Amino acid sequence: MIKKNIFIIIKINKKMLVTGILFMIMVSIFSIWKEVPLKAVFHHSIHRKIVIDPGHGGIDGGTGEDFGLLEKNINLKVSLKLKKYLMDKKFKVIMTRDKDSSLEKKSHIKASRYLKDLDARKNIINNNGDIFVSIHVDAHPESIKTRGVKIYYYPASMEGKKLAQSICGSVNNRIYKKSLKTNNVQASIAPEDFYVLRETQIPGVLIEIGFITNPQDRQLLRSEKYKIKIAQAICEGIFNYLKNR
Which of 5, 81, 204, 206 could anchor a disulfide with 152, C-beta 3.0 to 4.6 Å? Predict the structure, then answer.
């Protein structure tokens, strides 16, 4: 029997070959690009602990009673929304309060109810967080024209200032530029010697999310849509600050 060698010649279209190779390269690049941000989000989130401090509560209603609103309720609603958005990004979130209550019973110092409440907030923040945000509503009885988001940091805290700047940039972009579409109002930052900023040992800010004495801000503070947007803006500012740390 005579064996014959059979050769099969496959003609390959060079254009198709090059296209196929380029396609595989693009798929590989996309897979790597997609994976890196997810790893970055995970790395900068899962090990970070953020304390949210809704100002006032319980017997202390804060400002706004003259307008049929109570600051303590607005603070808590925005804080709970902020908690959800931060948890969606895999941060660990601790609340100084998650209901309408004051915190003086959690303090062991001998002082007024007001100072005991502040002491309890300080202890929760220092014992649980990497950073913190304290949520409040502002008032200016002498000027109804004063409005806008104000973000305060402790003068000696450079990290607190950087956090304030990051949140401020996000609020200006999300709230005033994209949502309200105005150039007449801007969020701003300022150093301040508030107890919760001075006595805490981690970077933090106190955010006044609007002036209840201003008609335009008061309308926003009544709005659930605004509460969602301001919580999202604060969350974005926190994330942008932490992703570089």
Answer: 206
Our measurement of the distance from residue 186's CA atom to the centroid of its chain's CA atoms, rounded to an integer in Å, reads 18
138: enclosing H helix or E strand: strand 131-138
| Rounded Cα gap, residues 28 and 21, in angstroms | 11
Structure tokens at 101: 């209550």
Q: Which residues pair with 150 in a beta bridge?
A: 188, 208
Element housing 50 (H / E) = strand 49-54
Residue 187 phi/psi, 5° resolution? -70, 155
d(CA 74, CA 123): 23
Locate 228 and state its tokens: 């969602």
**Spatial distance between the Cα atoms of 50 and 39, rounded to a whole number of angstroms:** 20
For residue 26, name the pLDDT band (cuts at 50, 70, 90).
low
pLDDT band at 47 (very low <50, low <70, confident <90, very high): confident
